[in-house]
Design a protein that fits this description.
By secondary structure, this protein is an alpha/beta fold. About 40% of the residues lie in helices and about 10% in strands. Helix 1 packs across helix 8. The longest helix has 24 residues. It is elongated. The relative contact order is 0.15.
């Protein structure tokens, strides 16, 4: 595909830390935008040290940083210093989008609210990421994806087995989803600006994104309807929406929605057509009533053959199923490569990476992912582009207005 990427020519200022906010700017960079990451003096974005957390795989390559900050430029400015703020305002005047996730009180103290900056650039898209939104009793509450996205939204409640301890979230899943929501808001604001010439403020929160991800259960709750606690696998609500272990230790997820059509096909795939005449399993209602018994019958059937044989049998009968993938499968997942979910990287020590889940027929392939920037690697370069002379940059550094 010839032509330019859809966001080419846009300048994005990423003032956000950790993951959810920077995800939105990463995707913008993938599709052509120039992204400048504004970091505070000292150690910069705390995400630079996320790879040291106990909850993520340990590796010499700081892949947590590179994944969410690829192809960005790093500029270190002290926004509390008058000269650092002046440099920021000069940069802001050239920007199209500004992404922030400072706590609301910090924004007020730093004069980084939309009302504080829009006069510098009336066409600016100001994108706000928060934990719990910008109004209400918990607006000032700090939020991470584990607390605001998963815990508060009821997602963990819905995943918890009856009688068991609460479920626990995995690193950054809610952040990645919420970052895509902010990306969507930004692109709508850019379309609005294209039509009207007006800048605007847009935003999302981890909490709202968690509720949206959990919308089926949350909507039921709004009506006073609640699903019973999740039963153990051995006593499922439906034996045909359950997990079964194969002879070689892999797990298959059955998700048979059209039971009247696919129950006979499943029996044929299992070579258990005798079950079709069992009165306990004749109808959808009777299969639900006797789900525990049916699951007990299916367990040894699936345990009698390996995964690859089940894959062939279930596909032949058009059964809806999926392998419960393990992370060790990811490097050899040819489907992910074929559809561009795993792509080559320009980074020698991280030769492959995960792409944004977007496909466009009208644009070239996204920018090849590269490394996240070293701390303050581009401060001098960007200030020079803004018209600062060498001696001015040296003076700013001497006064610690920049890093």
């Amino acid at each position: 595909m010839s032509g330019q990427l859809p966001l080419q020519g846009l300048r994005v200022l990423d003032l956000a830390s950790f993951i959810a906010g920077p995800v939105a700017t990463t995707v913008m960079g993938d599709y052509g935008a120039e992204v400048i990451k504004i970091e505070p003096p000292g150690e910069g974005d705390p995400q630079r040290k996320l790879g040291q957390a106990h909850s993520v795989p340990q590796h010499p390559v700081n892949f947590c940083w590179h994944l969410v900050n690829r192809n960005k430029r790093s500029v270190v400015l002290d926004l509390k210093h008058p000269d650092g703020r002046a440099a920021f305002d000069r940069l802001l005047a050239t920007a199209d989008v500004m992404v922030v996730n400072f706590p609301l009180k910090v924004r007020e103290r730093l004069r980084m609210r939309y009302a504080d900056v829009k006069h510098v650039n009336p066409r600016l898209i100001y994108a706000s990421m928060t934990g719990y939104g910008e109004s209400g009793p918990d607006a000032e509450q700090p939020g991470f994806d584990s607390t605001a996205f998963f815990a508060r939204s009821g997602l963990l409640d819905g995943l918890t087995y009856e009688g068991g301890p609460p479920a626990f979230s995995l690193p950054a899943q809610g952040d990645q989803m919420t970052g895509m929501n902010l990306f969507a808001a930004i692109t709508m604001a850019l379309l609005h600006r294209e039509r009207t010439g007006e800048g605007s403020e847009v935003g999302t929160s981890l909490h709202a994104s968690g509720l949206w991800s959990n919308a089926i259960l949350a909507q039921g709750a709004l009506l006073g309807s609640f699903v019973s606690p999740r039963p153990p696998r051995t006593t499922p609500r439906s034996a045909l929406a359950n997990q079964y272990r194969t002879a070689d230790g892999r797990w298959i997820q059955l998700t048979i929605v059209r039971e009247d059509k696919l129950w006979p096909e499943l029996c044929q795939a299992m070579e258990r057509t005798d079950l079709l005449d069992d009165p306990r399993f004749k109808t959808l209602e009777s299969r639900r009533t006797h789900a525990t018994e049916l699951a007990g019958l299916l367990d040894p059937v699936f345990a009698s053959r390996p995964w690859l044989e089940w894959r062939e049998r279930l596909r032949r009968h058009e059964i809806t199923f999926g392998l419960l993938g393990i992370l060790r499968d990811v490097p050899d997942d040819h489907q992910a490569v074929a559809n561009g979910a795993v792509v080559p990287s320009a980074q020698a020590d991280m030769p492959r990476t995960i792409s944004a889940p977007i496909r466009l027929s009208f644009a070239p392939e996204p920018v090849t992912p590269g490394a996240g920037p070293d701390y303050a690697a581009h401060t001098d370069e960007v200030l020079t582009e803004l018209g600062y002379a060498r001696e001015e940059i040296d003076k700013l550094r001497d006064t610690r207005a920049i890093g």
